[in-house]
Write a structure and sequence with these properties.
Oligomer: single chain
Bound molecules: nicotinamide-adenine-dinucleotide
CATH class of the largest domain: Alpha Beta
Number of helices: 15
Structural class: alpha/beta
Distance between the termini: 66 Å
Helix content: 40-55%
CATH architecture of the largest domain: 3-Layer(aba) Sandwich
Shape: globular
Radius of gyration: 25 Å
């Protein structure tokens, strides 16, 4: 494991050096920005195995899942940005009303300047590099604070950034929570935070001290509604993949299922068959599957096993799974029935391989349940009734909605990704990520000499007054 370089430089020194660079980068051209992005892409291609090894060492992440959920999201984000950046950067003309006759208006996208990216542990590579791509595309410098819970990946990230950038351009600062707190004291021009709603509030409070803008990519409980007329085999396969990839340690993993009571027994059968097929097709035991990540640390392992114990104690039934092994931090994919709102599992974001299933009798009941809780990061709706899709879209609020699939929206380059209120503020990915790191500067060009407004200057005679009232009346 390489040793951290962070401690060699003081945070204020790095921050000051980025001030100079940020003002130079304000003028950076499309070509300069894409060459920075290409260097990241080339490094990743060359170090694909190192990235896989780091994730394997951090929490036993299967190589295929690292390729799919850590490397592909980043390389595809770069490809998409390379294709579109010139268009995104170019000033956009806007239309004008009659009152603005003779003027022209344009939106210029200028880099905000110095950015801070605070990343979580659950996708420790892609959730640090993804926002960096948006920052570099927008022309910002960046300090990345990776998670302390995934040291192998954080060290590799630091190695990559040290190889590709001067610390006045991009720096990785590793450390515990105190390091994050020290960084948050500085007057950054933008903070992009990915993590829990609780820490999101701390970040926003600190940012308010400097009126720094924030993007908060947070979490929470993302529900799944299963309608009475659903292809249950199809739904079960999609839900299981979305839930158990990364062993459920995914911000947009289906947190719990609300199933129409008429489909419950068939749904449970499909879920159980599906788990068996995905992780134990040769009947050696799920624990021996090479395709299931482990829980990141003992604290999270204990939190999750406590959820199971607490739910069981309060009357929940383990329909499938429930086994675990503290030595390897393995938790079997687990389905819980008869869950109640007083159980911890229905109060906290689960963030692990446990799937509670509740039933409802009519769609209103399911929507009321969702609407009485904090707005989810993602809402998944399975079923064939298009009227019901519309109903759910109109009568609930969430960061994203996916109909007849889950988690997939994360990979759509043209959709904004993010939450609302408790699940987040601002959007990530593609153009939306680029906008977060850009100041949308509205620029108005007026002609020299006589303009419409000349007539509106004092002294306010009859003509001026008539003109002002016609403005109110007609425009
Ligand atoms: P976390 O909030 O505990 O930590 C995130 C980062 O904040 C880490 O780098 C950590 O060092 C730092 N941090 C922790 N406590 C801090 C404090 N008191 N002051 C300043 N900085 C602090 O989150 P996590 O456990 O790493 O990640 C899990 C959470 O992240 C879940 O809630 C999940 O839903 C969410 N998440 C959201 C997205 C998204 O895109 N919306 C993606 C992944 C994870």
């Amino acid at each position: 494991m390489p040793t951290s370089q962070s401690s060699l430089f003081s945070i204020p020194d790095i921050f000051s050096s980025q001030a100079v660079k940020a003002s130079q980068w304000k003028k950076s051209t499309f070509r300069e920005r894409i060459s920075r992005l290409k260097s990241i892409s080339a490094w990743i291609k060359e170090h694909q195995q190192d990235i896989r090894n780091a994730l394997q060492n951090d929490f036993g992440k299967p190589e295929a899942e690292t390729d799919l959920s850590e490397i592909y999201p980043v390389t595809s984000e770069i490809t998409h940005t390379l294709k579109n950046l010139e268009k995104w950067m170019s000033p956009k003309s806007v239309g004008k009303p009659l009152t603005m006759l003779g003027t022209s208006g344009k939106i210029y996208l200028e880099p905000k300047g110095r950015s801070l990216i605070i990343a979580p542990w659950n996708y420790p590579f892609s959730l640090a590099v993804g926002p960096l791509i948006s920052a570099l595309a927008a022309g910002c410098t960046a300090i990345i604070k990776p998670s302390e819970l995934t040291p192998h990946t954080s060290n590799l990230l630091e190695e990559m950034i040290t190889e590709l950038f001067d610390q006045s351009e991009v720096a990785v600062i590793q450390g515990e929570i105190e390091t994050s707190q020290e960084l948050l004291k500085l007057p950054f021009d933008h903070i992009f935070f990915t993590g829990s709603p609780a820490v999101g509030k701390i970040v926003m409070k600190a940012a308010a001290g400097h009126l720094t803008s924030v993007t908060l990519e947070l979490g929470g409980k993302s529900p799944v509604i299963i309608d009475r007329n659903t292809d249950l085999k199809d739904a079960a396969g999609k839900i299981l993949w979305g839930k158990f990839i990364n062993s459920g340690q995914t911000c947009i993993a289906p947190d719990y299922i609300l199933a129409h009571e008429e489909v419950l027994s068939e749904l449970l059968m499909e879920l159980k068959v599906g788990i068996q097929k995905m992780y134990d097709s040769n009947y050696k035991g799920i624990e021996h599957s090479p395709d299931l990540s482990r829980i990141v640390n003992d604290k999270h392992f204990n939190r999750l096993t406590d959820y199971i114990a607490d739910a069981e104690k309060l009357g929940a039934k383990i329909e499938f799974g429930g086994h675990y092994n503290p030595a390897t931090r393995y938790i079997e994919p687990t389905i819980l029935l008869d869950v109640q709102d007083n159980m911890k599992i229905m109060q906290e974001e689960i963030f692990g391989p446990i799937l509670p299933v509740k039933t409802y009798q009519n769609l209103e009941e399911a929507m009321d349940y969702i609407n009485s809780r904090p707005k989810p990061l993602a809402l998944y709706h399975f079923g064939n009734d298009k009227d019901n899709h519309e109903k759910v879209l109109q009568e609930t609020s969430s960061g994203n909605v996916v109909i007849n699939d889950c988690v997939l929206h994360y990979s759509h380059p043209n959709l904004p990704f993010g939450g609302v209120n408790n699940s987040g503020i601002g959007k990530a990915h593609g153009y939306f990520g680029f906008l977060e790191f850009s100041n949308q500067k509205g620029v108005l060009r007026q002609r020299v000499g006589m303009t419409n407004l000349t007539l509106l200057r004092p002294p306010y005679g009859l003509k001026a007054k008539q003109l002002i009232s016609s403005l109110i009346k007609w425009f």
